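re: the backbone from monday

yeah here it is again, tokenized this time
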């Protein structure tokens, strides 16, 4: 099979993808609900919902963990050009120690991080332990976040994670859960309880999102937004 994206052309694909996302930005409307806006914190979301980070206003103080794959090169290019801070690596069980230490360092500098907790290769909607270690050693709470829309322009891809992104005009909800704190002296068993707590919180937010979205729709919440 011919590889479309190679080391030689990945930057061209990355720039083209960035231009597409910038164009899409003109039509994307995101309403945030219950964002505690803690500094520092670790935003935890599904790999399929990774684009929800665009709804977080303070991009200059948000570090996004992105894999070292060719696809990751494209995502990193987009995020850096949007003003986010980028850390390359993985938060999985076998993930890079270097990237985790970078995130911990950023948290200690009072900046936030965002981790796709079931990425980069799944299985989907199973939280990996890296987010727990990062929050525990960085002394920061975990803030679960999902996004949701009822618009047909919120596309779902046939990928392992069911990746979601808007196409043209789309009204989106960023829904945040209560902060989850990880004690620094937790035992491995307690860390596992926290991992399940994060996982269950994300699943519960997905269940709550449709009703909250309908309520916002009645209130015409997206009409009140200013263009980003």
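seq for it, each position gets an aa:
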């Amino acid at each position: 099979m011919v590889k479309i994206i190679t080391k030689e052309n990945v930057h061209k694909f990355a720039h083209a993808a960035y231009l597409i996302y910038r164009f899409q930005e003109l039509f994307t409307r995101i309403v945030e609900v219950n964002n505690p806006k803690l500094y520092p914190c670790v935003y935890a979301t599904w790999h399929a919902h990774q684009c929800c980070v665009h709804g977080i206003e303070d991009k200059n103080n948000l570090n996004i963990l992105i894999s070292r794959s060719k696809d990751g090169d494209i995502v990193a290019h987009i995020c850096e050009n949007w003003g986010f801070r980028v850390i390359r690596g993985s938060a999985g069980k076998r993930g890079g120690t270097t990237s985790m230490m970078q995130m911990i360092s950023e948290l200690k500098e009072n900046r936030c991080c965002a981790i796709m907790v079931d990425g980069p290769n799944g299985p989907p909607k199973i939280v990996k332990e890296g987010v727990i270690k990062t929050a525990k050693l960085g002394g920061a709470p975990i803030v679960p976040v999902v996004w949701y829309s009822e618009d047909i322009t919120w596309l779902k891809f046939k990928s392992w994670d069911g990746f979601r992104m808007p196409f043209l005009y789309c009204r989106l909800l960023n829904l945040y859960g209560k902060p989850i704190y990880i004690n620094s002296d937790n035992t491995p068993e307690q860390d596992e309880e926290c991992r399940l707590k994060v996982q269950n919180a994300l699943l519960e937010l997905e269940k709550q999102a449709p009703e909250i979205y309908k309520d916002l729709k009645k209130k015409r919440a997206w009409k009140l937004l200013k263009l980003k």
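The helical segments are 10-25, 70-82, 97-108, 130-138, 188-218. The mean pLDDT is 91.
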